[in-house]
Design brief:
Helices cover about 35% and strands about 25% of the residues. By secondary structure, the chain is α+β, with helices and mostly antiparallel strands. Strand 1 and strand 2 form a beta hairpin. Helix 5 runs parallel beside helix 6. The protein is globular and about 50 Å long.
Length: about 270
């Protein structure tokens, strides 16, 4: 039986490939709006040729280095590996922002070993800010090649919480979310809808927000940013168990129970 790889080594590969992919996205993006190649869950949920090319680049680099691994990407077919290691990749998290030229989109690369996320890397394409985490070893922001550890700060209260969120591109789900949000907003400081779940979760980890809630996240949206958040000391949950596509909510342990109860009570 082959020995499983060291998560830190997997993160090093994720970072090297993520930085190359981010540079490719920056070079490839034209001035103005980017042409849409296709749509996914609805006519407003878009894909570009640059998304696809970036995922191809990431897949090629990873499988060149680790040919027996599996690969789960947003834009292509899943690849089943034989090593027990799977890569979970969003080549451009925040594609609508990318299309419009709004500076909040990221490359997100996570690694699962026997189904558990053990390492994650997120890099903001426009700014170059990047984050990493290894399960059991903490989270950090990169300052050049230096790791600066991050720990989520304790918020004052749920009532004073600035909450990062997102909305579905499917009209029926958006209608329900809007009704729930109308009940929710008066009970927190405010909300922010930036458009990249990976960047939201990394921002939460370092204190740019106090809490998070979103429905409809796929594994590639959540895996890397979720590990950064949890390793920074935050609690992640679904409505009735672990975070899943139905719901991801996250908060500091000091307010998590009250915050999660508020989300349920508002009907998300």
């Amino acid at each position: 039986m082959s020995r499983l790889p060291v998560p830190g080594d997997l993160l090093s590969l994720a970072r090297a490939v993520g930085l190359e992919a981010a540079a490719f996205v920056r070079r490839s993006r034209p001035t103005g709006r980017v042409d849409v190649a296709a749509t996914k869950s609805s006519p407003t949920d878009v894909v570009t040729q640059i998304d696809r090319a970036t995922e191809d680049l990431i897949r090629s680099r990873i499988l060149d280095a680790r040919p027996d691994d599996g690969f789960v990407g947003e834009e292509g077919e899943d690849l089943i590996g034989t090593s027990g290691v799977d890569w979970v990749v969003d080549p451009i998290d925040g594609t609508v922002n990318f299309v419009y030229g709004i500076g909040a989109y990221a490359v997100s690369i996570a690694v699962r070993v026997n189904g558990e996320v053990v390492a994650g890397y997120v890099v903001s394409v426009p700014t170059g800010e990047s984050y990493g985490a290894v399960r059991g070893e903490g989270s950090w922001r990169y300052d050049g090649d230096q790791r600066v550890g991050i720990t989520a700060p304790r918020p004052e209260s749920v009532a004073h919480a600035l909450v990062a969120t997102g909305f579905s591109y499917q009209p029926d789900i958006r209608t329900r979310q809007a009704a729930a949000m109308a009940l929710f907003i008066p009970q927190v400081r405010d909300i922010r809808r930036i458009g990249s779940a990976a960047l939201d979760l990394c921002g939460l980890a370092e204190g740019r927000y106090d809490a998070y809630v979103e429905e409809g996240l796929h594994p590639w949206d959540l895996a890397a940013g979720g590990l950064v958040a949890s390793e920074a000391g935050l609690v992640l949950s679904g409505l009735d168990g672990p975070p899943d596509r139905r719901m991801v909510m996250a908060a500091h342990p000091s307010i998590a129970e009250e915050y999660f109860a508020l989300i349920r009570a508002c009907g998300f």
